[in-house]
Design goal:
Chain lengths: 86, 451
């Protein structure tokens, strides 16, 4: 999963996609995931890092990450080639 | 190192359309306590889902309603509408406050007697009373409100066999300017049916006509129709005075006052827009006082308000079973209380609040119950925080009709508790077990074994 590298994200969770002009709000953990994706971390790495940081069981976290991935896809925030290959 | 509190990752697209003029804040504060008792504690002790009734709210709502009428009219009597909520603990709070009982079946009549209420303070309404039920109520001196001519004839016949004259009123239906007109109950005012029935009672002389009754509809969102109804009943009462020199003892205006709930499809919340008790009281009492009654012969004013007295006192505590995403990307949450417990979710958009603190992030949600039936939707659309499995929610304004119209459908019904004025919690109806249900079922011998 590769995030669109052009995305601009502010500290307060405001996200802008310059290629479509669309804006989003994202909560702190969502922003954290996007930052991790931007630096090229794998889904497995993200899962483990978040599990180490947050009070949540791994299965629920995995389910939520999958759901978040779907949302990123739905809003075309993933790189095109990556998105179509999934 | 201590781990951080978790919240689901959440991303929402910002739409820059025209702002909605009906836009309202969707971030209701969390309901962590009900009458001072922690929701968490209630779940730990009584399970989830759980019905909670607040005694304090019942009493204060009743007192507010009584004050609205009694400060405007000299003789006021409330009669608790059993069909709205007939758990004995709830009924007896109203009876302790001074309410009579208003029942609409032999079953409810027996419940009222079992609650210890004086039979002379039971109003027996409804279109389906049997001969035995009528006889029993009449001999007990209860107030029988006649719904149709067949009942009038039956009761007149029965009266011949009785030691005491049955005390009766007739139910009158009428055009008060609202739709729908409830003409299926009682005798019509405009076409003369009501007057005809009154003539029959007075001329036969076998029944003692003590009152006039109407019930113009339900969830009436304007007070004006009540003024029309009160004027029309006053007109009948004055006609009786003139023609038969007969004074009725009471005028019963029925119920139908709206609670704070929001009807589906409404633009604004019911809590902000529905009439108050003062609005209804002003309309009714002004019409009666301004009618032709002499001040000393004003009849007793009876009110059978149900919903508006109890809705706010009821809560359902429910827990999240699962959250999922629908094919459209829409968020859906499955909770453990469905339409089997919350019949009124077919009518209202019940307020739902989280039972624990959350961040400011909200998402639009569809709330489904646990039933494997498509109809089981508690809220089509509601903004809620980012809920996780196991989180709890509180559904508000559930005190009316749910504990009488709930269904033993697919699953069993849960505990019901009442929180008293000191913050003590009392179990007022135990959760059902499979034995309670199967104990009533009979299986023929040849069907007892399945190979």
């Amino acid at each position: 999963m590769k995030i669109n590298e052009n995305l601009a994200i502010s500290e307060s969770g405001f996200l802008f996609n310059p290629s479509t002009g669309e804006s989003f709000t994202v909560n702190p953990i969502g922003a954290e995931i996007i930052e991790k994706l931007k630096v090229g971390k794998s889904e497995e790495e993200i899962l483990n890092e978040l599990h180490d940081t947050y009070e949540i069981d791994k299965k629920s976290l995995q389910k939520d990450l999958l759901d978040f991935n779907q949302i990123l896809k739905q809003y075309q925030l993933l790189e095109q080639d990556e998105e179509t290959s999934n | 190192m201590e781990k951080k509190r978790y919240e689901r990752p959440h991303l929402v697209k910002l739409d820059t359309g025209m702002p909605s003029k009906a836009g309202l804040r969707g971030d209701s504060p969390a309901t962590t306590r009900i009458d001072g008792v922690q929701v968490k504690e209630l779940i730990a002790k009584f399970g989830s889902p759980l019905f909670v009734m607040s005694e304090q709210t019942i009493r204060s709502t009743y007192q507010k309603a009584f004050k609205a009428f009694s400060t405007r009219y000299p003789k006021v009597q409330f009669a608790w509408s059993y069909k709205t909520n007939y758990l004995p603990a709830v009924c007896n709070v109203f009876h302790q406050e001074g309410s009579w009982a208003e029942v609409v079946s032999g079953f409810e009549y027996d419940k009222a007697l079992a609650n210890g209420i004086d039979p002379g303070k039971i109003i027996f309404n409804g279109p389906g009373k049997s001969a035995e039920e009528l006889k029993k109520a009449a001999e007990n001196g209860s107030l029988i409100h006649i719904d149709h001519l067949d009942e009038l004839y039956l009761l007149t016949d029965l009266a011949g066999e009785m030691k005491r004259k049955p005390l009766v009123a007739i139910r009158v239906n009428m055009d008060t300017g609202i739709y729908p007109m409830w003409d299926r109950f009682g005798f019509n005012y405009e076409n003369g049916q009501a007057w005809d029935a009154l003539n029959k009672i007075m001329l036969a002389g076998k029944l003692e006509l003590v009152g006039l009754h109407t019930h113009i509809g339900t969830f009436i969102m304007s007070a004006t129709p009540y003024a029309v109804a009160a004027s029309k009943l006053a007109d009948l009462a004055l006609g009786l005075q003139q023609k038969f020199n007969h004074n009725i003892r009471y005028i019963d205006m029925g119920g139908g006052f709206a609670s704070k709930n929001t009807l589906k499809g409404s633009y604004l919340p019911g809590a902000d827009t529905n009439p108050s008790f003062d609005d209804y009281a002003e309309a009714i009492t002004t019409a009666l006082v301004n009618s032709g009654f002499k001040p000393e012969s004003l009849p007793l004013l009876i009110l059978e308000t149900g919903r508006a007295l109890i809705d706010e006192a009821g809560y359902i505590i429910t827990s999240v079973i699962a959250n999922k995403r629908l094919s459209t990307g829409r968020r859906a949450t499955v909770i453990d209380a469905g339409v089997n417990l919350l019949f009124t979710s077919f009518w209202y958009e019940h307020p739902v609040t989280p039972a624990q603190g959350f961040s400011q992030y909200r998402e639009e949600n569809t709330l489904y119950g646990p039933l494997c039936m498509n109809i089981d939707c508690v809220r089509d659309s509601i903004n809620l925080p980012l809920l996780n499995k196991g989180d709890s929610l509180v559904i508000h304004y559930t005190g009316a009709y749910n504990l009488t119209q709930w269904m033993q459908f697919i699953t069993l019904r849960p505990n019901v508790v009442m929180i008293d004025r000191e913050g003590n919690t009392h179990l007022i109806r135990e959760s059902e077990s499979v034995n309670v249900i199967s104990g009533l079922e009979k299986t023929p011998d040849y069907l007892k074994h399945v190979k």
